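subagent[fold] <- orchestrator: predict structure for attached chain, return tokens only, no commentary.
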Amino acid sequence: MRTFNRLFPFIILIITASFSSARDLTGRYEKAELFLPKNISKLVKNIYLNPYWIGGNADFWYVLQTENGKRYMLFEFGKKTVRPAFDHEKLSGLIFKETNKKISPDSLTLDHPEFSQDLKMMTFSLNGKKIKVNLENYSIETAGEAEEKRNPAESISPDKKWVVSLNDYNLFLKNIETNEKVALTSDGMEKYEYANPANNWEKLIDVSKGDLYDPHIDIQWSGDSKKFVTYKIDKRKVGLMYLYQSTPDSGFRAKVWAYERAIPGEDAIMQEFYVFDVEKKEQIRLDIPAIPDICMSFGPQWMEGSDKIMIGAYQRGYQSQDIYLADANTGQSKIILHEQAETMIETQLTTCRWIKNNEEFLYTSERDGWNHIYRYDKEGRLLNRVTQGNFVVTGITGIDEKNNKIYFTACGKDTGMDPYYVQFYSVGLDGEYLQLLTPENAYHNILLSPDHTHFVDNYSRIDTKPVSVVRSAIDGKIIHQPITADTEALLASGWRFPEPFKTKARDGETDIYGAIYYPSDFDPNKKYPIIDGTYSGPQAVRTPKTFNSAYRSFDVSFAELGFIVVTVDGLGTAMRSKKFHDFSYKNLGDIGAEDHIKAIKALAAERPYLDSTKVGIYGHSAGGYDACRALLTHPEFYSVGISSAGNHDNRIAKAWWDEQYQGLIGAHYDEQSNFNLAANLQGKLLLVHGDLDNNVNPTSTLRLAGEFVKHNKDFDMLIIPNKNHGSVFEVPYFLRKRWDYFVENLAGIDPPKNYELKSY
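subagent[fold] -> orchestrator:
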């Protein structure tokens, strides 16, 4: 009896604390709602400078957020000063005279504003008219009709003499001056047609009506308007995927939608390329082999007036790439560059830029283990390497041919910095005089002026306030800071900067990086369940690196509910060395779980407030695959998972993504299917999918559900009507349901009953 008396106050304390937490949850939900991406964006101003360059000039205009609304501002490079782009009061008065609608000077939203080079005139569209304003005396005149919406089935030549139209799967040419119209082709037919964009898998077909012909012409004119190049697409062997819409906009009959989709190992849309001479009315087939639409890389691009065309293409499996140079007069072509890889070529890093009046080109390749720039002559002979070293070139930003200089972004060059931080460099075409233009230890988003004299640099980290400056493109010196980020309201709300961290991968040697999100009332003396925010798709880096990506993450709202959210990029993710990236090749089922688990355990060993005995995981798309697979392969560590839009078996997914990172179809596809591991489920799992998801088809989730049913496994599932891959995030119920699931199953607390998100 004495033992019970001694324990009774402790039991009461636990119960009281539990009920206190439950009562406090509604307040946490309200705070989490405030921290959802769409809402939290309202708490900051001027965190990113977006310049609109004025012609080929060095000046630009931008929008400044103010306490009362916004103002249009002008940066004058010559004066190195900022001023209002115009008198807002006078312009709002002019608009009132034109429309009889009063508008505040702080609420102006101009449609397609353009400034003259001397900054004395401005035009914009208003009520279907093009309005020209003299900014010296504020006189106003109509400068013609506003630009009409282009007919998607027509294309006008650069010299405005010809119109090519698409009708009944064929091409027609009209002389604008004489109105004469002739047929250029007659052999086009359904599913074997001309110039209609080949990548049509996002187009939904109402099965009850069939595939209605919807021409959207896609042709490339030569600069002299003498020829154009396009393709003939063959869709006759491409299979369809289907969506079942149980809740149509009207009526009581469900609808079935179809869309064209090549899945791994199946036939894709094929493209044959043709040149048309509009004066001779001739059609010439380029002797380039038909290219699967999923394998197009560059072009078609006109190279020399109307004589040469460049086209780049990968082979299925993405282990090789060819760049063709074709003669537009004869159709003859040759391969001027062949790139081969033992694993795969990363498409998002590969760039081809022609220079020197098409006498040379720049090409990026990971052939030495890091993505770098190489310079070739037009015949494909290597002239020189432009960059080299243990770092990754992420893109060519600009080419100043007058000064033989290349501007590019890269990450990982400074070994004392997070290797994912992008910096900006210039280098000579010969590879000499490499210069760093952004020395700050941060991630730099760059917008280079058209004349290559200066650039806008928006730089930040997840643990610092963002900075936006104008810098010299010669030496990187700061010229001006047109805006100052305002984060006072955000910080006053209790929002906390996430914490970046570095740890070792499973091999004990390789550095991997992540971030930690804390609740606003974080108490280091308490114990917090952990949520692993995951996306191991090899094309991506899930851990945020900039303020903009960090403060708008869904991780913020999850943390606010009383969790600590950890995100980490393990072996196989993007933007590191090819060796690092290749870890995931034909190995998507790994999902980096061992790296995540090792990282979380290491963090918990150093931080007593992290409870590594209570770990949940969530993700969307490839992250949805991860979240489910984590429970199936590591049930000893992950106990709760939320998997939305998961691509649970890559054999029923889009061919291009899977074949790039999984290679051609083989036994490894079966080994990495979540379907085959359904019997392993032990924890609590919520499956979510939009029923109109034409990116990751709902079949993926439904077939997985069938496997769980077959193995008598408990799980939860939510199908969201009338939502596709991205629009599920517009559904408040989905967002709240994710919160509830972790609160109930990971924290062990009853969530607020039917909490309603009111401001989302």
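orchestrator: received. Logging for downstream: The longest strand covers residues 610-620. The chain is about 20% helix and 35% strand.
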